[in-house]
Amino acid sequence: MSGAKILVVDDEPQIRRMMRATLAGSGHQVDEARTGEEALEKFRVFLPDLVLLDLNMPGMGGLETCRALRNGSDVPIIILTVRNAEREKVEALDAGADDYVCKPFGMQELLARIRAALRRAPSSAESGPHEFVSPDLEIDFDNRRVRVNEKNVRLTPKEFELLRHLVSRAGKPVPHRELLQAVWGPDYGDETDYLRVFINHLRKKIEPDPAQPKYVLTEPWIGYRFAIPENQ
Amino acid sequence: MASVALVGAIIFVYYRIVPVNATTVALTLLLSILGIATKWGLTESVVASIVAMLGFNYFFLPPVGTFTITDPQNWVALLAFLVTAITGSQLSVRARRRAAEAIARRQEVERLYALGQAMLLSGSVRSAARDAVNSIIRTFEIPAVVFFSKAEDEFFRSDAQTLVISDDQLRGIADREEPLIDRQRQVAIVPIRLGGQVIGSLGFIGGTLSTAALQALAYLVAIGIERARSIEQASKVEASRHSEVLKATLLDALAHDLKTPLTSIKGAVTHLLAKPHAPEEQELLTIANEEADRLHRLVVEVLEMARIEAAKLHPDRAPHVIGDIISASLKAQEESMKGRNVELRIPASLPAVDVDFEFIQQVLKQLLENAVNYSPPGSPLTISAELVSEKIVLGVADQGKGIAEDEQARIFDKFYRGRTSRDNVLGTGLGLSIAKGIVEAHGGKIWVTSEPGKGSVFSVALPIYNAELVR
User: Fold this and answer.
1) Does B264 touch chain A (CB under 8 A)?
2) Using CB atoms within 10 A as the burial measure, which of A25, A166, B317, B337 is most buried?
3) Per-residue pLDDT, B469
4) In whole angstroms, what is the distance from residue B323 CA to residue B259 CA?
5) CB within 8 Å: A22 and B256
6) Which residue has better confidence, A181 or B250?
7) Element (H or E) spanning B353, and its range?
């Protein structure tokens, strides 16, 4: 997918220059913000398809900006950071980011991540299920709508794709690698921490009791399984 | 003599001015003796009672004008005077002594309180000791005081007078834990005890303090000193924690500042590399890209080393299966291990290791990378794990050139590069010292055994997980 509108949020001018040149050179339309506050403003005007967000910024930090963006939008967000620790990664994903890239990075890798984040309708979409209905959970895959106990619930695109893939294989354990590749793309496979965080979010949103999930179950060592309650 | 005058005055008044009967005179005299006894004490009252008896006898008892006692009743009068004098004076002396004692106690309590207040302000053991000595002298009006602190083995003397008490004497009292009170020489030494532990001794020269006061004082000093000691320790801990936070912040800032320009370089170069170029341009861009990677690696390793040296490495330990760590590391090194035959010697039932997964994976990756880099292409590698005296020992063996004996200890040093390879293998010379830092932060050990010409085995001993050990 080329020609996407990308908002680059970074406090370092040289990084913004480099990103503008390389992303524009790859056919994207770029706008920049120097701070989290500016990013929120630019976001409303520029309406980007994707946000590249630096984690370490003065003032409103990257995590806070990520949460603020996520609050009103399901735009794909990729966090860029110099820190490469498991904890940071989980924190960023938990704040609502779709992906996490460590600085310094190769441009091809970043472009692949951008493509993966922008991919909204995986090939399985047409062949997948159209709906799932149970007394406390309704999913309308065609219109991307989820209702829990008759109330609308908003899922981010990644959460939605994750749910779609699990439901399409309902009752069977889906391995980590398969889920990652179905939702994030073929370049993924080892990022089981991504799954852990997103499954957590998903459970919080669709499970009546997230601590004792009845739909999204963990298959130890293998992956996850969507269970259809027996009383249906 | 006032008492004699008083008795004389009473006798004169009754004899010359107001004539009354003998009984009234006797009662009045009795009252006056009682008064004298309570006011002036035993001697005065005994003198007064004898004078009163003589006067009573001479002026009022028949035959008047003589000292003769005809009636035995008069002996009773004399006895009554004497008994009153003695009893009254004793009672009053006792009461007065009690009052004096009460005042002295109150003063001691007040002084102890003042001492406690003075010591409350001391921030360190030394200043608390000095404050104790000075405030005892000031508030208890004792000429000279010496304090011996056992933990510091230091003596705090108010002045040269205290040299009457020797260092050894003070140490001795602190060891024997029994006070020494020599009223004649006016020297007292008491041990300072708190919670059953002797923390030192306190010597006094001159001054008169009750044993109870001495003990209270010793207790007070003990509390003051221990309080200062705990404040001192707490502030030391706080200070070191503070400097640790500072170092961590500094390292994070440094990491950010070094990696930011690298990000711009790497981004720009890789973008250009993706486009078609003339061969020499392609070659130059490739060099720039590789060198950016190398610089990045160096930055990461140097910062990691700094973190280890600042003791900023906090392994997040949990039980892990060693096989999982080995397969994760092999996976991460997949690319460089291509074409290598890897033999795994891992028994099925090994206890879990108590380590930080990421850190130990990093160590193993480093050992695998070294094994690949320092052995001929295509030669086999062996990875083993075994339980040796309550530790899991991981081994990575290669069939390379080996490491000369004199180099074996030095390869874990910072920036040390093997003699034979420093020119043809890329590296910073930090990998193994980082691995060592990580392993040691887990309470483990890393070492190498090698036979030049045959190969090397790098071994890592890691603690096993013990569910009963609650951290």
Assistant:
1) yes
2) A166
3) 55
4) 34
5) no
6) A181
7) strand B353-355
State yes or no: pLDDT of B262 exceeds 70: yes
Tell me how far apart the alpha carbons of residues A167 and A129 are, in angstroms, rounded to a whole number: 7
Provide the pLDDT confidence category of residue B70 given band limits of 50, 70 and 90.
Answer: low
3-state SS of chain A is CCCCEEEEECCCHHHHHHHHHHHHHCCCEEEEECCHHHHHHHHHHHCCCEEEEECCCCCCCHHHHHHHHHHHCCCCEEEEECCCCHHHHHHHHHCCCCEEEECCCCHHHHHHHHHHHHCCCCCHHHHCCCEEEECCEEEECCCCEEEECCEEECCCHHHHHHHHHHHHCCCCEEEHHHHHHHHCCCCCCCCHHHHHHHHHHHHHHHCCCCCCCCCEEEECCCEEEECCCCCC
DSSP H or E stretch at residue B146: strand B144-149
- Tokens coding B370: 């070294």
Count CB-CB contacts under 10 A for residue B391: 18
Structure tokens at B32: 């006056």
The token duo for B439 is 């392993």
Interface test with B, best of A6, A11, A12, A109 (most B CBs within 10 A): A12
A12–chain B Cβ distance below 8 A for any pair: yes
The Cα B225–Cα A121 span in angstroms is 73
CA nearest neighbour of B370 among B329, B405, B406, B324: B329
CB atoms A22 and B262 under 8 Å: no
Q: Which of A214, A215, A89 is nearest to A163 (CA)?
A: A215
- Band the pLDDT of A37: cuts 50, 70, 90: very high
When pLDDT is averaged across residues A16-25 and rounded to a whole number, the result is: 94
Residue numbers in A near B294 (CB within 8 A): none
Q: Write out the two tokens for B305.
A: 């080393």
**So what's the pLDDT on residue A124?**
46
Q: Does A14 touch chain B (CB under 8 A)?
A: yes
| Residues 346-365 (B) with a CB less than 8 A from some CB of A | 358
Contact B219, B227 (CB under 8 A): no
pLDDT at B97 over 80: yes
Q: Which two tokens stand for residue B292?
A: 């950016």
Q: Which amino acid is at B443?
A: G
A54 vs A8: CA distance, rounded Å: 8
- Residues B321-350 pLDDT 10s: 888 888 888 888 887 888 888 888 888 888
Instruction: Strand A5-9: give its sheet, edge to edge.
Output: A29-33, A5-9, A50-54, A77-81, A99-102
Shortest Cα–Cα distance, B377 to chain A (Å): 28
